[in-house]
Amino acid sequence: MSSAADRLPRLLALVPWLRTHPGARIDDVAAEFGVDVRQLRDDLNLLWVCGLPGGAPGDLIDLSFEGETVTVLDAQTLDRPLRLTADEGQALVVATRTLADVPGLAERDALDGVLAKLEGALGGRTDPAVAVAVDPAGDALATARSALDQHRRLHLRYLVEARDEVTDRDVDPMRLLVRDGRWYLEAWCHRVEAVRLFRLDRIVEGTLLDVPADPPPEATSRDLGDGVFSPAPDDAAVTLALDPAARWVADYYPVESAEETGDGGLRIVLRTAEPEWVVRLALRLGGAGRVLDPPEVVAAVRDRARAALRAARRGAPAKG
User: Fold this and answer.
1) Given this model, what pLDDT does residue 147 score?
2) CATH code of the domain occupying 139-212
3) Is the pLDDT of residue 155 over 80?
4) Distance CA 111, CA 125 (A)
């Protein structure tokens, strides 16, 4: 099964290709796009229910692929040249300029060529003051890129925010990626013997080791089409009620669900393997946030708050 990140570009390329190759054989098309016949038929079935807004039969892409060949009968504009608005063109220019600032970017000449064409098509109407900020994560990015280029193992001192603890671990780098404006290193972690994503801004120190990076066969890259955060099945589900002043929690932390409460607040559910950080979060929020479930986390927040009050009355600092 293809990931969403692989499938969308293929679907967008499939329609114009088929329009220029009417009656193409199914197995030839599958080979052209590097998928098996079953995957291609799944793609064609999905395209068959795609099209223009409205969803009426005349709005959908029309294909014929009952036998061993496939023909696009109505491409619903996907075979027409792309026409960008000025705002869309500006957004592409800004994104391309941002990508061009990535250190050590491969095929930089090709990217510069694309940028020049975009700016030329806009006729000088771009705003050079507009930019997108991507956190470079300091020296950690250069160290991680060197480890990838040289196929070497890394020793990391890494902040695990959920436990407020700096851990030491050796990792075999697999790839660098940017998600939501943050850099991540995907690597095989020898400490937990699994693939992990490490936020570069949480790497306290990174050291290249004189050991070749050698991820095991089971070290496969994660599909991040649904986001960076992927809770384990046994992670605890925690429900919180947030007042309007605490709505930022739903934007800052990955949540499983968020429901408006009608008074400007939210009721959210998040999953975590380390409920301790949720206890600290609830204490930070004060009266603006309350843990509703599970009972053991509710009790932990209550006990910690009472301990803080007792310590305050004695004039001594509370632990935690």
Assistant:
1) 92
2) 2.30.30
3) yes
4) 20
